[in-house]
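G., the chain you wanted modeled:
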Amino acid sequence: MPSKLSPEDQARVDRVINRGTYRTERGPFRIKTLFFGLILLLTVMSVLSYAIAWYHGVV
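Predicted structure as tokens:
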């Protein structure tokens, strides 16, 4: 798709994009870490909710 910007405007956009703020290198996406973190969070929340229910005599 051709650019709708003039060459001067495109040069300004390129300068801004190439600044340090926009050139942040990111690490690889770790799906296993996300999955195990989610499982850990759900387990902790389940145990906590069970403990609260047990404390109040619901269980």
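Residues 48 and 54 are 10 Å apart (CA to CA).

Shout if anything looks off.
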